[in-house]
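ping. complex inputs:
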Amino acid sequence: MVIATPRSPRHVDAMSIPVVELSGIHKSFGANAVLRGISLIANEGEVITLIGSSGSGKSTLLRCINLLEVPEQGQVRIGGEDVSLSLPGPHRRPTNETQIRRIRSELGMVFQSFNLWSHMSVLDNVMAAPLRVQGRDAADVRAEAMATLAKVGLAEKAEAWPAELSGGQQQRAAIARALCINPRVMLFDEPTSALDPELQVEVTRVIRLLADEGRTMVLVTHDMGLARAISSRVLFLHQGLIEEEAPPETLFTAPKSARVAQFLKASSGG
Amino acid sequence: MTQLTAVLADIALLAKPALFNLYFAFASIPIGFLFAIFLALGKASRHGLLRRLSSSYIYMFRGSPLFIQFFMIYSMVLALNLSVWKPLGIDGIVLNPLVLGPVVLALNTTAYTAEILFGALTSVPRGEIEAARAFGFSPGTRFRRIVWPHMIRLAWPAYTNEVVFLFHATTLVYFTLPVIDDQKDLMTKAGELFQRDFNVLLHYSVAGLYFLACSLAIFVVSGLIYRRLTRHMPGAAQRWRFTLISPLR
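pong. complex structure:
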């Protein structure tokens, strides 16, 4: 019998509909091979967490999902649809820009450094993609954006400039921006790494809330507590390969790999 | 008191010539600004040929004196007069200083402005552009909504300099091109007045006053625009205001 965690019911309920499928992903920057053949599947409702030391390729892998990085080899499928790419090689490009933009408009990305559009109010940040990319009705978008901001606890900051917010507030605004496109998948690239511990808590609380709603998420993080609490599966990356993949209760308590055990020991400060 | 009346007389005499300097500036600056946007994008382009052509243009016009550009272009235009302009019947337009002057100034300011805009373009926050890509913005929307607002804000103080420099450079037009009828600018009119009584201090000072007054207007308007461009950045507009006021104290 597995020890019950808040996430356990999800493993049972998760219908095995793959939303994100990466297969055989290779990526290098110059002579530096960052990803050396990685496959990943995120099913509907799953939270997949990527952990590993800096430079292990976690962020690069995440960025391959929405094609901010183009894998040199391998295939990307979103919602069962193959992303069309040119022939494998270092100059591989998407061959269908319209498809890329449509797929990106269904993937909500949250960055380590927030990357809010600094010349727009918080509300305009949240409304921009639904209006300008998805072409939705302005009144609907405004109502939904306000509701989303309320959800992340920023309703009263709707008219503020990003520069007037704390780091934690900026990151929550960035999460609202990603939520408001009604994404199939939320992608988080080290969302709390640029924040001090106090501000991390307020962002982590929002991410946990989203996980509890059953949203499909792929998360890159150094926050082992968060990874343990919300993940359906945890992938440990090492030197561009998946060293170990397991449910959190297994990976964090009884890792098979010595490298993973060593990493977890170092992360817990022991 | 006679000095004051002399100054007032000069102010009246130089009012119309000042309009010519203003005309040269206002006719060339918007055209130069528009072309400069495309030239800056060309210089930042991934296409090698486009990048090289844009860079070469900018280098040619930034790398040589405006004075020489006037002479070169005027002599080239003159050389084509009998073979091209006259048969087409447009020699009166092409050779008119009110046309050719702004053209040369526009060619020149295009290069300087393009370099300013190019520098600004390379300083647009990468993360914000990446976020726009991640959310599926088309290249056009990305430029209009994200890149351009940053680019113009970053370029603005340097561009204000360029506008004022160009306004002052309008004095070079009639060093090369012929004055037609009474179409004199501040420098030619002040020179004419100087020829009468050799009072260099009076006439050129009053001409200079016109430049100071117009420059002040440019600074004030530009400062207001800059305040608008930086309204999302707490403190930025106040800094600008300080630099504007302090030289006058």
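Residues 193 and 203 of chain B are 7 Å apart (CA to CA).
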